[in-house]
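Here is one chain, start to finish.
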Amino acid sequence: MLCFSPRIHGFAACFPTRSVSSCELHLFRATVLLLIHFIKLSSSILVTMLKFKTPQKGRIRRELEKRAPKLVETGKKTLILHGTKTSQVLNDVMTEIYHLKRDNSIKYTRKNDNVRPFESGGETSLEFFSLKTDCSLFVYGSHSKKRPNNLVIGRTYDHHIYDLVEVGVEEFKSMKSFKYDKNLAPKIGSKPFFTFIGEGFESNEELKHLKEVLLDLFHGEVVNNLNLAGLDRVYVCVAVLPNRVFFTHCALRLKKSGTVVPRIELVEVGPSMDLVTRRHRLPDDSLRKEAMKTSLEKAKKKEKNVVKDAIQGKLGKIYIPDQKVGSVALPHKAKGVKRERREAKLKHGTTEQPEEKKQKLDSK
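Its structure:
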């Protein structure tokens, strides 16, 4: 047999027929109130998590707009990282890559124990650094007995690992080891040429992948027009063996050739190294398809009566209808019209004055 007690703030509590002490009632009441408070607190936390906070400061708003996806992307930034252990050769290589991409690169000097690009658990920290610095390219250097002077170059899509290329650095020569005229030194931000020599870049899958990554790493921002005076360097890549590429950096010297096209000479300015391919990982087909999506280009609307000339530039025709100036009413009587009226009166011999003026003359 059960009895109902409606004393606990509207809640119906069921108790057996035995006598219940007041201590047990207070304990049950406290438990129910604590449960209600916990439900309210959890719901408020969930609402706070789902709420999107808009930035109030203009500086933060502009920074978020820079990181937002764009129809035409700007130059890609590169993140340079050190592994658990690095050699002096790797330190020099990463320093010189940073100097070549000084305008679009970020370099971390501390060692990163948790970063391991080809391992599933070691890519979390790398993706976090990519999101933090807004970098879509990274260069990771590590040194071990199994893989000495190891360099990993990779790309990210939506701040997740897209693809990876692992190479070993051999026969490295820094910029300081080359002697040349300092006036020929390439300028920061200038656009480079690329030269890929060898059939391996067309037939070997590893070298084809390395070619894509190197182009993405060094080509800089995409532009439509170039000034010939701004082209002052070239990256030369030669496929020596199926797994070895000779990479060097040269300056361009323009000389007179007797024709309109100047004669070009190459001056090696460094760095120079041999890249030995070790491991590489291509993206999945679904990820590649998603990353390669582009917006549909709208057809340009034809401009009527516009002609483009190589010398005069953009020319246009303007059609003006007949203005009919003779029949347009003038806003006020011009002085020339008054003079024509006076001349017409003198011509016809009418020199009569108005009545008001006559009366004034008679009164005098």
